[in-house]
Amino acid sequence: MVEQSLWMQKVAADPGHSRWYIERFREMARTGNDLAGEARLIDAMASRGARILDAGCGPGRVAGFLATAGHDVVGVDVDPELIEAAEADYPGPRYLVGDLAELDLPARGISDPFDLIVSAGNVMTFVAPSTRVTVLRRLRAHCADNGRAVIGFGADRDYEFGQFLSDAASAGFAVDLLLATWDLRPFTEDSDFLVAVLRSVQFGN
Ligand SMILES: C[S@@+](CC[C@H](N)C(=O)[O-])C[C@H]1O[C@@H](n2cnc3c(N)ncnc32)[C@H](O)[C@@H]1O
Questions:
Q1: Dmax of the chain from CA atoms?
Q2: What is the pLDDT of residues 101-113, one digit of tens each?
Q3: Which stretches make up the Methyltransferase domain (predicted)?
Q4: I need a labelling partner for 111 at 20 to 30 A (CA). Which of 20, 73, 89, 189 fits?
Q5: Is residue 138 in contact with ligand 1, taking CB distance under 6 Å?
Q6: Is 146 exposed, middle or buried (0-12, 13-18, 19+ CB in 10 A)?
Q7: Has residue 126 got a pLDDT over 70?
Q8: Torsion-angle region of 136 (φ positive above 0: left; ψ -120 to 50: alpha; else: beta)
Q9: What is the CA radius of gyration of the chain?
């Protein structure tokens, strides 16, 4: 067992939290908000029909867009209520409930590695802090050779960008590109958001 994610600690303290989150995104979709910015970047990086893992997929907006674009998508999230909403609102990907710190998709019948892993919406700041490096290692273990992970989260969420990049390196990722937004604005020392494009490297190379 790993330490419970901060997200599920929030849900335990407020059982309405997941429902609130689901409805918030449903309302944004209804009122015409653009909910696919992150997914468009991932789609631009992917060859057609790529294998893509949405790590911490929540109610499915990113995974759903990518499946509609023709990719082979798996979405994993620790919150069963969000996975239920993803299945209802964005069918197409294969959705699984699970903690990223314990991610073992071959044990669940999904053995091929992923060309791309996306983790949008501050997921890395919601995993239990004691599991951050383990989560990054589990993501790295599910990447194809030369596969990439794109991970985005905001500043002032108790996970310093420098610490994250050091954790990613120790998990076997090299930095390809650092951005400040999902629409490709460059990362600077003043950026309050990080979108890290990481490449899976072979240990020992
Ligand atoms: C703010 S939501 C973002 C959801 C989705 N990525 C999006 O952008 O719409 C954060 C998500 O991280 C998930 N999460 C947090 N810790 C997790 C963990 N250890 N394993 C899997 N999912 C986790 C939560 O359940 C929640 O869906």
A1: 50
A2: 999 999 999 999 9
A3: 52-147
A4: 89
A5: no
A6: exposed
A7: yes
A8: alpha
A9: 16
User: Could you give the count of Cα atoms lying within 13 Å of 120 in the half-sphere of its Cβ?
Assistant: 22
Instruction: For the chain, give the percent of residues with pLDDT over 90.
Output: 97
Helix axes of 61-68 and 80-89: crossing angle, nearest 10 degrees: 30
Say what the pLDDT of residue 1 is: 85
Q: Is the CB of 4 under 6 A from ligand 1?
A: no
pTM to 2 decimal places: 0.98
Torsion angle of the four alpha carbons 162, 117, 145, 194, in this order, in degrees rounded to the nearest 10: -20
- Please, what are the domains in the chain? 6-200 (3.40.50.150)
Q: What confidence tier does 203 reach under pLDDT thresholds 50, 70, 90?
A: low
**CB neighbours of 105 closer than 8 A, spacing ≥ 6?**
53, 74, 76, 96, 111, 142
Indicate the DSSP class of residue 183. Answer: T
Only one residue has tokens 């309050």, namely 192
CA distance 119 to 152: 6
Residue 124, ligand 1, Cβ within 6 A: no
Q: Which of 2, 3, 4, 7 to mutate to test the pocket of ligand 1 (most atoms within 8 A of CB)?
A: 7
Given a cut of 80, is residue 204 above it in pLDDT?
Answer: no
